[in-house]
Amino acid sequence: MRLAEVERGDTLGHRILIRMISRFAGYRLPDAARVAFYDRRFVGPVLGEWTQKTMRGPGSWSVSERELMAAMVASWNTCPFCIGAHRAIAVRGIEPAVADAVLADYRTAPISDRLRAALVFLERMTREPDQLSADDARAALDAGLTTEELEDAAAVAALFNIIARNANALDFEIPSASDFESAAGMLLRRGYA
Amino acid sequence: MATESSHSVLADRLRRRVVETGVISAELREGAMHAGGAEHDDLGAPYDVLARTIGTASYRVTDAQVGAVREAAESDQAAFEIVMSASVGAGLKRWDAAARAIREAADAAR
C-alpha cells in the first residue's frame, strides 16, 4: 500500500474497526476494504452503491458469473490482487477448473455461449474502448444476450476498470490463497456497499 | 432512444462526485479524471504522468510517481483523490463507450 493513511484508516473509528476486523477474522483486512473505509466524503459511497447493485443486485447473471467477469477485467488490467480476490468468490459457484480455464483463455473454456459473448464485448471495452461500436454490441445481442444483460455485464467491466486501476496504483498487498478464500466469504456475506 | 438505465444514473453520480467533493482542488480532480480517461487536458507535473499511467497501464505505476504526487499534494487524502479520480476517468470512459454502443445497436434493431 503506497499511502500509509489509507492503510491505517483516516478516523479513530476506522482505525479501531480495521484492527478489530483483522483480529476477529484472523487475517489482515485486505487493502480493498481499507480503501472502502477511507475518505467517505469522496467517491466511496457512490462507488460502493454501484458495485453492490451490479455485483449483488437483481439480474440474470449469477453472482459467480459476475465475479468471473470481474476477474477477467482484472486480468486484462494485469491486477493480481483483483484476479485473486474475484476468482476466489467465483469458485464458490462454479468449478475452480472452469474459472481457471476462463482466465487462461475464455474463448476455449467450457462456458455458455452467452457468457463467452459477453466476455468478447468486455475485452474490447477494456482494451480498445475507442474502437468499441454498435457492431460489437450487435454481436453480443445476436448471441442471445438481452440489452439489459449486456448493460449489466458492461457495468461490471466499468467498475473493475476503476477498482483494478486503484489497486495497482496503490500497490495493494497480495493476500495468501487461504486469506483470499476467507475474504471471499466475507464479501459474499456482507457485499460491497 | 433507449431509456437511461440505472447504471447510467449511478455512473453520472460518480462523475459528479469527483467534480463536486474532495480536499484537493476541483480542477486537479477533474483533470485527473480526464487524464485517466485519455482526454487531452494538460494536468501538469507530477499529476499528469501518474494519472495517464493509471489510465493506460496501471500495473506500471511506480512508488516514485505516487510519492511525487503525495509530496506535491501535501496529504495522503489529496494524493488518494488523484489516484481515484484517474481510475474513475478510465472506468467511465469505458462505460460511456459501452452504453453508446449498446444504445445504437438497440435503436438500430427497432
Automatic annotation (TrEMBL), chain A:
<protein>
    <recommendedName>
        <fullName>Carboxymuconolactone decarboxylase-like domain-containing protein</fullName>
    </recommendedName>
</protein>
<dbReference type="InterPro" id="IPR029032">
    <property type="entry name" value="AhpD-like"/>
</dbReference>
